[in-house]
Design brief:
By secondary structure, the chain is of the alpha+beta class. Helix content is about 55%, strand content about 15%. Strand 11 and strand 12 form a beta hairpin. The longest helix has about 35 residues. The chain is globular, with a radius of gyration of 25 Å.
């Protein structure tokens, strides 16, 4: 045997397994952070989002670079990985069942619709509605999916449901669920006799699923406090990693997964691993997570069976692998930037609108009944050794109750609101909060205690609050 040939073969195999390990590791690390944050955390568009410069931290750039390296590696070794015996057997086994994709979609979407109907939701756990005809339309669409001749009509019904949901929950919010529109188009296109229309069925669901994962990953970057609240309630999710870094890592990995699905990179192997990862999240979040992700599981199973379909996956138009590598990296960065800018702009608009409402419950006050047992608040600032400041809340007769946020007031419990220079920055559900870098100058910091329904607590008409000031003399390095 030629030693050089043996050594080269060993190096190729090592590279393949290293690449596979990177894929598995990247998927496993954020597995418990892949749940839709809005389903399990208290969120509000009245919370101040981070701006672009606050998102672009050194950790972001580091993890972005690692994401690009992994994606390039998987692109380079794509054909070699599929030739691994067990990967090839998996690919062939699922590929032989591609004829069942329509049944899978009908069953998965039907189950989602029936669950939504009985729970007074629109496709997802947090999209609750009291509009009766919308709920009954869901049941009607589920019924239409039973019969092959009415599948296209069901697709039209799903698109109508998505349009109505935009009018109820807002366009920005419903971009989280663009997959619904993709599924609606799938049922319309898959039954078309026009091959040019029919071929768009699978790309529509893959593209919208990829978009949703990228969009939700950007959400974690712009609203990290929502995800960190979830980590505070379930510390095991962070795997011992510092929360800020974990949220950024989870965001970049979710964005990478969305991109890989969108361009059909690693196809069935990727879909299989993501499906298994989503199943693992049920160990923490239980039945609601399973039900909420049924639509995503359905599309991933279709991905397993059909692969990229008959359409040529994006970037595979570039036959030369050496040219495809920089094109893939560039496409990833451009797509991320293209979606991040409108997300940050949209979130800032929603923040401004939400905080200008004159009847906002945040402006209400609840008088504490017992003056002697009234909650007390003091704050202490600590310079962070890396950047910014850590604010410590010192309270008496008060219990932080993150799980009760938005519910009816209960005496002695609630949360706090943090304001800097008169603008609300965040809701605090714990004693500690990190304030990032601030511009040069003096900054007024005010913290108020608030009831579960966000109304401010007061004694003799005076808000229970604490104030301090941060003076920045020089820009942080």
């Amino acid at each position: 045997m030629n030693p050089k040939s043996s050594s080269g073969s060993l190096q190729r195999k090592s590279s393949i397994w290293l690449s596979l390990s990177a894929l598995l590791g990247c998927l496993w690390f954020p597995s418990t952070a892949e749940a839709h944050v809005k389903w399990f955390s208290k969120y509000s568009y009245a919370d101040q989002p981070l701006d672009l410069m606050e998102v672009l931290t050194p950790s972001f750039y580091l993890l972005l670079g690692l994401s690009i390296i992994v994606i390039i590696s998987l692109t380079l070794l794509e054909e070699k990985i599929i030739k691994i015996s067990w990967v090839s057997r998996i690919d062939q086994w699922f590929g032989s069942r591609s004829e069942h994709i329509l049944y899978v979609m009908r069953i998965g979407v039907g189950v989602t619709l029936v669950w939504s109907w009985q729970a007074d939701k629109v496709f997802a756990p947090e999209l609750a509605t009291s509009t009766g005809w919308v709920i009954w339309l869901e049941l009607a669409v589920a019924f239409l999916l039973v019969f092959r001749k009415t599948i296209r009509l069901a697709g039209v019904g799903i698109l109508i449901l998505y349009g109505v949901s935009i009018s109820i929950f807002g366009f920005f919010h419903m971009l989280d669920y663009l997959l619904i529109a993709g599924v609606g188009w799938f049922f319309i296109a898959i039954q078309s006799k026009n091959p040019k229309i029919k071929i768009t069925a699978l790309p529509a669901v893959y593209a919208t699923l990829g978009f949703c994962l990228i969009w939700l990953g950007i959400e974690k970057l712009v609203y990290p406090s929502w995800a960190k609240l979830l980590l505070q309630e379930h510390p095991v999710l962070a795997l011992g990693v510092e929360h800020d870094f974990f949220v950024t890592a989870a965001a970049l990995i979710e964005i990478s997964l969305g991109f890989m699905i969108l361009v059909c990179l690693q196809e069935r192997l990727l879909a299989l691993i993501i499906t298994l990862v989503f199943v693992l999240t049920t160990l923490v979040f239980g039945k609601e997570e399973v039900v909420g992700h049924t639509l995503i599981h359905t599309v991933l199973i279709v991905f397993l069976f059909a692969g990229a379909g008959s359409a040529t996956p994006p970037l595979h138009w570039i036959k030369n692998v050496k040219l495809r590598l920089p094109a893939t990296a560039l496409a990833f960065v451009v797509l991320l930037a293209t979606l991040m800018v409108p997300y940050i702009y949209g979130s800032s608009v929603l923040y401004s609108v939400s905080n200008k409402k004159p009847t906002d419950v945040h402006e209400m006050k609840i008088e504490v009944k017992s003056r002697e047992e009234a909650p007390r608040l003091a704050i202490s600032l600590h310079k962070d050794p890396v950047k910014g400041w850590n604010i410590e809340l010192i309270t008496e007769n008060f219990t932080f109750a993150p799980a009760s946020a938005g519910h009816d007031p209960v005496e002695g419990e609630g949360h706090a609101h943090l304001m800097i220079n008169g603008e609300k920055v965040a809701r605090l559900y714990d004693r500690w909060y990190h304030i990032p870098n601030l511009p040069i100058g003096k900054h007024d910091v005010v913290v108020t205690l608030n009831a579960n329904n966000h109304a401010g607590l007061a004694v003799d008409g005076k808000a229970i609050k604490a104030e301090t000031q941060i003076e920045v003399l020089a820009p942080s390095k």
